[in-house]
Records
---
Amino acid sequence: MNLQFISKGPALLIQNRQKILVIADLHFGIESDLALHGWHFASRSAERLERLCACITTNSPDLLILLGDVKHNIPKTTRQEYREIPDLISAIRDLVPFRILPGNHDIGIGRFLQEGELLPKWGAIVDGVGFIHGHTTPAPDLLGHLIIAGHHHPMVCLHDEVGCALRAPAYLLAELDEIGPCRKKQGGARKTTRVLFMPAFYECAGFDVLQIIKRPFSPLSRSIRTYDAEVFLTDGTYLGPVSSLEDDVAA
Amino acid sequence: MARILVPFLLWRMMLPLDRLDERVRSCIARRGFTGLSDAQVQAIPPVLDGHNIILIAPTGTGKTESALLPVFSALVSSPSKGGIRALYITPLRALNRDILARMEWWCRELSLTIGVRHGDTSASERRRQALSPPDLLITTPETVQALFMGKRLRRHLAGIRYVIVDEIHELAGSKRGAQLAVALERLHVYAGDFQRLGLSATIGNPDEIGRFLCGTRPFTVVQVPGAKDLEIAVKFGGESFKQQVETLYPMLGRKGSTLVFVNTRVTAEALGHELYERGDVEVHHGSLSREVRIDAEERFKRGEINTLICTSSMELGIDIGRVDHVIQFGSPREVARLIQRVGRAGHKLRAVSRGTILATGFSDLLESLVIARRARANEIEKVTVHRNAADVLANQVAAIAVEYGEIERDQVHTIVERSYVFFDCGTLLDDVCRQVEEHRLIRLDGSRIITTARARKYLSANLSMIHDERKVPVFDMVSRRTVGTLDESFVVGWVHTGAVFVTKGQLWRVIEIADGKLTVEPARKVQGEIPSWEGEQIPVPYSIAREAGSIRRNRVVKNYSHEPESIRYAVTFLEEMDKNRSPVPTDQLITLENTDEGVVCNVCAGHKANEALGRVISILMSAKFGTTVGIELDAYRILLRLPSHIRASDVRDALVTLDPAHMPGILRLALKRTALFKWKLVQVAKKFGAIDPDADFEKISIQRLLDFFDGTVVQQEAYRELLSDYMDIDTAAAIVHLINTGEISIAIGRLSIIGAEGLLSSRDEIPPPTADQAVISAIRRRLESDHVVLCCMNCRDWKSRTVVSRVPETPQCPKCRARLIAALKPWEEQLYVIATKKKKSKEERATEVRLLKNANIVLSSGKKAVVTLAARGVGPENASRILGTLADGDMFYREILKAERNYIQTHRFWQ
């Protein structure tokens, strides 16, 4: 059993009984939303898809799991999305079977999918690992497993003697606190649950991990044990516990 | 180009008058003109002859009338066919109002109509102008752009016969000017050939300004000598601000009115504060509201106050009545600026202009002396025209598309190529079109350029090439109040969640950037310096800094000044340097001085060359030592903020081994990751329509968004502007070449009094080329603070829990003195119990063997082994492999990192 960090993604490759490629937060169609906020760029969907396809072909997984926010615009699906998403989805489908854990941005994505491709939004277990987008409270049966979640777009800032030296997407691994909201549905099981928050595949996303911890904005991030949460770079480099990053700035 | 230098002869003074229309002549008589000024005598005939002219004359010599009297004469003698007949363009609204006030009388007398149109003009006035346009329209370059947008206004452009550009030296060096040059060619499409009249202060390159105004058309330069009428004194004002104010105070008591020019708004406010009690002083600068400024101007004009403290806001020809004396507080930094400012004094035709520079320090004094000498010798800087500025072209392509709806690309090419600023633009137009199409400002259909729905909105927000700086409020969430504002450029380039910056003398950490506001909390400690750009900072040119350096070398202060106080101060200062055995940095000697903060490089090269040189050195240091290097600089020194182990000799090594040919490439690479570059890129991208003026910077990683511009014309333009406007790479390379050939030598020493003089102007940080260093330091810090349990494997009766950083180099058991110490992770502590057991199972014996292996590694490698064993998933086998590589320093940590990564990927998630 093996878990590989693929920095040219970022993506995770989980090898258990089958080989599963995990990718989070694609945000296809974000450009029309950016335009509303004053940023006018041509659609980069094609380029993002190419990167995704390259990621699939080099790793040849048996299954692709998309951890939600495949599309971007809510509550409506935009013209850009109607135009682009069917082709994107079928391009992926041609390469590999896939499942989508729908995210908060995926309202109405069902219309582009075939039966069985959409998993429930409160998460699902595939090959012994829990998967969830991360904006909902996870289903009770996910507890006790490793849960891989998207939604939080974690990113890390490192400082050296003279100033900020690195800002990069990162993974955040934390144990779920036993007194969190998740506990109520746990029903006596005592096994620890760990959550691995994945960075977004979309290029321009990023929340500082310290912010995710200090100002949690989801049931998952609210119920993690923060003091021993750990941070990894996209190539698997273990940076250390979150507390060590904090000392870095605040000490 | 023809140059007319008419000697001053009385009989010729009234000659041009005869050629003016009789009605204009009678007005001149009624206005009480006794004669014409030099400028008028020389300029009126060629204007009447229909020449395009560049009139170069000091402020206050009746330039406006020189151009307008012959224009009036022509207008009254030819019937109006409706529409605008003459356009008078100035860079400032305030100047517009001033010209309007001066010309209203003439126009009324001559029954010509006159109007002003700029940003402050009311909608009703605009509408009236659109219905019945005035003969003479006074306007700004930005409003000229707006004239092309309306269908009705465009019709009125066909009758324009004269375009006068006032203060053209101000415009020619900016992107506003480049935009105006294109606008004149767009006007040419409607109006055909019209007469172009440029009015300029004294400059070094009048011919280029002529080409800027007229393109390839012929023009005449009329130069009225002015510098001989200047009387400039340099006075040393003292080292501290308090002394300087004391020196200034009695100078204001003299009879008559005084303008005090300062270089920054902050200085203006500070001086105003000190002098306010006098009751006869007002402050005038760009940050004050219009009403306050106009009130100050009016009161000065009426003589209610006799001192006005002002910034460059007062340089241009706004009429404030009689000025008897000009004081420049601190070096004026440029010859042209000094002449312009002192020219405000004696604002009566043919009066001598008197000015005093109050120098504020050693470098400032030498610089002032050099500038005063150059002003007297008429050695004035050149104005650099922005050529092939891609963002101006993008702006004008969008504007032309809106103007015509759709247009052939070749036609656009013809229009822009007529102007000097784009006449060899080559493939730039195609690149620009492709880029603005990406941002949906135009649509390309084969060879046609078609306007889009967005374009008009873009254009109304981007009439100006002036980058308007949005202020972002800073909100302290602890005290729940707004603590100040930051420039948007600063926010874009620097601020990210978690960043620490200084404002209002306090440290703040950014919590959130949202809804156009920055939410912060107080921070305790900052790691490194935060940059700030003083937008109003005027760079000192290379030639001046070098000459100041030569004074330091020759010690010939008395050739420059007769003022005993100044000479004594400068000479004593240099003697002090000698007494301290500090080598004096000159135009031929660079000194590198070690300080607590880093290394001060004293280089007499001016701001722009130092900027280029400083950045190149810092990127080299940053690459070599893998650390962030902060830089601060002024015209005479560069402070490199370095970690304490990097010294002046390292900087010297970098300098002497530098190949000047590599510098432009290094600089481009270096710039890319700086805040300055990002800031410039955002500005250019805005003009390309990629980013709205009021775009949100929340929820988006701007850094990565800006990567989208890699290799595009937007990025090229950002580089072009930075490398030409902000720094001078050619001069920096020339200096390095002189170092290579030995004509400039390098000395190393302790911090001297020259090196310690204020370092205030620009600051930036160069991040290290790879993030590696930061990652490794993070890991090193983490391992150092890890807990470890040391236990003796000899007596098996001692264990101690500690952190790695506190472990001695060779751990030893305090009980039995053995060095056979195992280093366990805290959760392995219970394993030690097994080691102390008398009877062991097979499994327990295996554990004991592992512990012994562990202890043996510590025995042979000491603390290094303890560090290795503290890493995640590193047991004795892994540890001995890592230690076996004999890697040291960063390489050692890199090995640990590799092992950890391996462990994490294979085991960590699957117990």
---
Amino acid sequence: MPLDFYLNVAAGGLLTGLVYGLAALGLSVIFGVVRIVNFAHGELMVIGMYAAVLAAGSLGIDPLLAAPVVAALLFAVGYGLQRGLINRFIDRPDHMQFILLVGVAMVIVNGLLIAFGPDSQSAQVPYAFDAIEIGPLLLDTTKVYAGVGALAVAALLFLFFRLSLTGKAIRACSDNQLGARVVGLNVERLYALTFGLGAATAGIAGCLMTLLVDVRPQLAPEYTLLSFIIVIVGGLGSMGGALLGGVLIGISEAMAGFLILPSMKSMFSYGLLILVLLLRPQGLLGKRP
Amino acid sequence: MTTLFDQLTARGRVALGLFALALLAVPFFADGYLISVITLVLWFAYVGQAWNVMMGFAGQLSLGHSLYVGLGAYASAALFVHFGVGPWAGVWLGMLAATLAGAIIGTLGFRFAIRGVHFALLTIAFAEFTRIAFDHIGWLGGSGGFFLPVGDAAGANPFDLRGSPALFYYVILALTFGALALCRRLLHSRIGYFWLAIREDQEAAQAVGIDVFRAKLIAVMISAAMTSLGGVFYAFFYNNLFPEQIFSVGRSIELILAPVIGGIGTLFGPIFGAFILTPLAELVTWGVESAGLDMPGIKQIFYGLALVAIVVYRPEGVWPWVARHLRLVHQPGDQPSHRAGDRP
């Protein structure tokens, strides 16, 4: 009986962790290519959450169906941000980039606060209280959908970077910016495309997240930090690492919340981050620079 | 950029003198509201100056300075509430705790060669970790908050730091001037030159034989100790402490606004930044409120836009630009008595 409990908690954490991992994947892609640390990542994700909640509330559209539209919206936001603002910071010192995005994040999160207020809002879905039984496991339908959705989107992104010509071009920029320019790639456009893709990924993760939690503006900085933790734990620039990191954090949060205190669960994430930074700074799956 | 008086023109010295006099005279003509606003401005100037030691001088970005504010605040408040020990003794425990925390973060970060953005994230992680830990320390009130007994607001008891707004005002004013003098001294010391060398090019600094690890560690510890003093002031000024407020990332970001806007690495930048930013933010809030709108986050939006505008249009900060245009400092072509780089 207790073992079943643990398994259930772990499986729930794993599914939530896949959504975390997807959000972190967006951050990782942006960092891996553009070399910009997107401190407004959680903010983009929460924009996606609000878009999904609005679609569900006013039009009755399921967040899963709203996801492609939200992705397109956030792609435009990301593309515009990179083109209009961030691109000129590519060669500036680290701390300048960081401060720029901290400013952008402050504007977004407080804009959301003014637009939607500080209270939690949720997207109603008809299957909110259903469960799926797999062997000894009894899993929330919402978690299964969210986790599987995250995995599917991550797979699509992976295939895009492996197979499509644009994906290959983006990887070329990431490997060697100068070389990419020499062979005639439009690096600025590809950077903007990458930022847009990263933002769209965050938006989809946000849509999936609305199945699991209520949204409020204050979630944004939390998700930003969470994405950072995951990306660093998994290894910056490694796509598999981001998913693995997300799953690890998801499971450890769920376990800590279950075994100790829910309010202390993020302490474990920060603890894990500090440990990984110190012992394996390149991350679990990252390559040594 | 690096000197306090040497580089100031006659006009600059007069401006600085008048500014100092005006600050000293504030409690004689200002009402309670104005005094409290300027107290807050000076607090941000002071803590910004402390942060500037680490980022502006030694080039190490910390986004977790709320940790040191919180440690200073909680240490002195706990001594006061639980043992009746006054803040002037509590300051030492606060500084000790913060310096120790800074030393731990610095040692771990620098020993393991964690740099740039990763180091900034390490500082955030430590601050957040501590925030959640303090949420669960019942002896210090936990997440429900820790409260100091409110003193007699009319009197003045400088030993227990209980008293009128004017008392707090002069304390923070003294701290701000003290920090300015200390930073100027540091910049012209051996370690100050080490810091600048590291900030500009760490590999080169190492190559000429500077103990980079030690120099950076000293910067973190000094910055942490100075910041914790601001925390002690915070505790006794506001009389209430909540981990969620004092240790938050948002607080850490607020702390860096003044030096970033004023000018990272300059001595007057943090003060100047605080003095333009807070009044402008008050003005924006007032304008929105008098327009009949209810926008709780408008001040933060203003701060965010200010950050973006500064890094895009004037990354060296507002102070160097203002000082140049008002001729408060000598231009590179003039002949100042001597400049920073001339000294051995």
